Amino acid sequence: MREPGIPENWSMGKFAQGDRSRLPNAANSASSAGSSLPNNPSPESGELLSQPPSLKLQSLSPHRRTKARTLPLPPNTTPPAPSKLPKWLTNWMLWWGIAGLISSGVGIVAISMLLKLPAAPNCPAIFWPLATATVRIHCAEVAANKQTLKDLLEAISLVQALPKNHPLRAEINKSLQQWTLDILDLGDRDFQAGKLQDAISIAKKIPQDVPAYQVVEQRISSWNSTWQKAEDTYSKAEAQLPKRNWHEAFMAAVRLLNVGNDYWATTKYEQLNRLIETAKEDARSFDKAAALGDRGGLNNILEAIKLAQEIGASSYSYKDAQELIPKLGKEMLALAQSALDRKDANEAIKIANQIPASTKLLSEAKDFVIIAEAWQSAWLDTVLGLEGAIAIAQKVAQNRPLYNEAQELIARWQLEIEDVAHLQRARELAQGGTIGDLTAAIAQAEVVPDNNPRAIEARNEVNRWRTKVETIEDRPYLKRAEELALTEDVGSLQAAINEASQISKGRALYSEARRKIRSWQQLIEQIEDRPLLDEARSLASIGNLPSAIRTAGQIQPGRSLSGEARAAINDWEGQINARVNWREARQIAIQGTPQSLVKAIRVANRIPNSSPLRYDANLAIAEWSNRILSIAQDRGQSDIPGAIEIAKLVPLGTEAYPGAQDQIATWERFLNPPTPSPVPVPTPNEAN
Fold this sequence. Notes:
The chain is 66% helix and 0% strand. The protein is mainly α. It has six domains: 89 residues, no CATH class; 88 residues, no CATH class; 117 residues; 93 residues; 107 residues, no CATH class; 91 residues, no CATH class. Helix 9 runs antiparallel to helix 10 and helix 18 runs antiparallel to helix 19. The longest helix is centred in the middle third of the chain and has 34 residues. The two termini are 88 Å apart. The N terminus is likely disordered.
């Protein structure tokens, strides 16, 4: 176990080889057993070092020092006068033994002093230009053991000053390499904590002339490479967020876990995950806001604006949200304008007052409210109302967004003031309701020029009053016509038509007169054509269908009964065709061959279901299909393939068709029996 402050790799052997001169001379120590060793030997070669305390014989016990002083005199010395001493004091062998013990003790003390390590030097107080290599190495290791950047750099600086050919250079280089790695480890702590520049700064403090400096460059390059890879991965993940590629962004974030840096694998990874989740939430909020805006309606638009406002400035959806908010504000203005167009000024004002400031349309909204209030006054349709509207509209200042619109309305209402007076006078005249009153009202309203804002309103009033005048004038003609038509004979109906025809096209009662004329004309045609249709039906009832068709054909197309006559003719022609088909089918079936029977069935199916002959035709079709099956069965007794071909002729939908299909299947199984399954041959093992 080494003493505190002495490096572990500083062995006694190295001490003896490197700086043996620091120990006291062994021979001198041995020859001066009765005196003290020098306390501070002179430094060698100018080196200054605090030496360990010198070995002193005071370490011997007082008892031994007393005995050392009573050693016998040398043989050539004249002994003192003899005295009577105890016998043991005159025993020379005893005294030689004591002398040997004393000599041995002095040698042991000297050797222990030689082998004892010196006390650790006081490194902060050393004058380094005069310090020995051993001292530099020792102090360097003491500093390096503190494992701080400052102390490690100091350790490197202490030993770097030693010559390249120093006997301890190999050990020094090993220490330099280790201290370099220790400094890089300190830098790596900052690198793992996300402080790249601090880590590089630490690494660059290592002197470039250390033996392992290439490790420093490699470590800095590795840090930069790892950091750049992490930044690229982070940037790629961020680039996917505006595109809403959430899966790709998350996969890029996961790659940060394996980038080789704790800061990017923890702090930045969590930050990126929060960023992705926030981006997803903001995107959902924006989509919901856009959907609500598309859905329309005041409540939906207000909710959409609220959602868009909640998207923060750091969000990838922020720009879209900020673009959406003014659009939603314009939709609110459009809703307010629609209410104003419906002359619902209160609703329009209510909507405009709810437009949020975030839409940046508050100026337009305030101006809109002023204009809506002006319209409320203008809709009174009085001179005072128009004057009030002008006064309200003048509140819109010149620097306001709707100033031009307000000025246009003011100009319009100024023009309307005079014309409103004309319309008011015209309406007062029209209240009398007579032709004269209405004519005077029309004349008064026509004073309003076509380019005046009230021109359309004046025209509508004129048309309405003119309709009343025409109705009053033409109603007697229509009333007399209705009275004439009450008898419903051809002459009266024709007289009613002539009376109603006096109402000319474009008059108020013209459409009503035309409807009545068409009705009376149809009555005349029915009176004229009904005998022909009745006669035709009478002929058809006795079976004379050709004569019935000719008689009904005399009713011309476009006449009142032409549709009814046409339907009857079609029915009679169908009956004639059914008779022809029924006769033809029976004649074909007489041949009795399968082919002729199939043809007879096809012809019989032409008879419509509405024909009285259809029942007989159905019975015949069933009989003919069964006859085909019977022929096939007879043929099957000698020629099964031929029988199958005949059975296939039975038409689908006939009574014999299911039986024919069953018979065909039976014959085909007979002709093509299933192949029997092979009997398995037992193997020898199974046989045993």
